[in-house]
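Both lines are retained for reference:
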Amino acid sequence: MNIAQGRLSRILVWGALCLAALLTTFPLLYAIAASLMTQSDFNAGAVLPSWPLEFSNYVAAFERFPLLRYFGNSFIMAGLVTVAVLVTSSMAAFSFTFIPFRGRGMLFAIVLGTLMIPWEATIIVNFQTVRDLGWLNTFQGLTVPSFAMGFGIFLLRQSFRTLPNDLHEAMQVDGASRFRFFVSTVLPLNRPMLATLAVFTFITTWNTYLWPLLVTSEERVRTVQIALRSLQGEATTAWPLVMAATVMVMAGTLIVLVLGQRQLKAGLVAGAVKG
């Protein structure tokens, strides 16, 4: 009886997991299928593309719009923000963890408080600042407002706190400076968490739509997310072409996930164990 109940429970769990996986991946699978359809098949409500597959949609997306430039702009924006967030977050987290100073707890509480403020609440102030600095239609305007992230500081501080204080004291006795301890010990020992933050920041920045829409009006600095919107016409839209461009945009984030999968998994596991 117990064996039968256990087997039934496993079947139900696996069934629920398979259903959840299907619901999660269905939009991606449908986007791939729709990108290989003709316009007539899509208008007819087809679920699967007919043979031969319409790979010309991918070619048409590059011919009609400068997608390579948009991809390059998105990569530059996401790359700059990722590097800056890693630098600022790691240095701030190191200060909060290993450098005692007056008001450290209060200042860290303020950093945590920024996590409770929605980004939309500060977008007007950020836009006015970027405009006053003359940074509209520049990569500075796209990236600088995102160079510091409260979540990144919190994540790395929690990771840095797991290092024993004896290690820091031993290196001080040996005459090592704080910077050397930071570069040669703290960062290498927290590589998985740094990779986790890097992947999270890159994907979040890559998928940003509203901020690039506000601070850019020239094609030379617009990102790929804006390009997807420009593919849609006012009267009619070639949805197979839009889906082809969407698949290529998603491929960028999937490549980052695949390349950072091992470090990302290690960081998540380490965070769960340390928590």
Notes: The domain at 66-230 is CATH 1.10.3720.10 (MetI-like fold). The mean pLDDT is 81. The chain has 15 helices and no strands.
